[in-house]
Design brief:
Elements lengths: L1 H24 L5 H31 L2 H30 L3 H8 L5 H32 L1
Length: 142
């Protein structure tokens, strides 16, 4: 039984190493390449989850006297898996122009739009100021 567990451990180690390498590449990619890499990493993470499930099943079949050692290994593998998933989540959004544009509503010519919007607001403010001054003049005259 422990040989199956060790085999799963080796597979998990290889898979997590591959995932870690691919996660590091994700922020540097753009467009379709990034989507393909993200899909590939998601698939590998799912495989790693399945390996963890298989290892858990193996641990349950191990005699109680030696189960403690394997249980502690399982905890560390689960923590590693959680860390990988968190790193993957961060790498998907890190340095992502697409996400930035989506969040900010940036459409490429935002500085021109912002400038036009600023000019419109400035004109509106000036008109309001002139109306207030005119109203004040009328109040003073009466």
């Amino acid at each position: 039984m422990s040989s199956d567990f060790e085999s799963y451990e080796q597979d998990f180690a290889v898979l997590t190493a591959e995932v870690t390498g691919r996660i590091a590449k994700v922020p540097k990619l753009l467009g379709d390449e990034k989507k393909q890499m993200v899909a590939s990493v998601e698939k590998q993470l799912e495989e790693a989850r399945e390996l963890l499930e298989q290892m858990e099943l193996e641990v349950r079949e191990i005699p109680p006297q030696s189960r403690g050692m394997y249980s502690s290994r399982m905890r560390s593998y689960k923590q590693e898996m959680g860390k990988l998933e968190a790193d993957f989540k961060r790498s998907r959004i890190a340095y992502s122009d697409e996400v930035r544009n989506e969040l900010l509503g940036d459409d490429g010519n935002s500085s021109e739009n912002q400038r036009a919007h600023l000019l419109d607001n400035t004109e509106r403010l000036e008109r309001s100021s002139r109306r207030l001054e005119a109203g004040y003049q009328i109040a003073v005259e009466t």
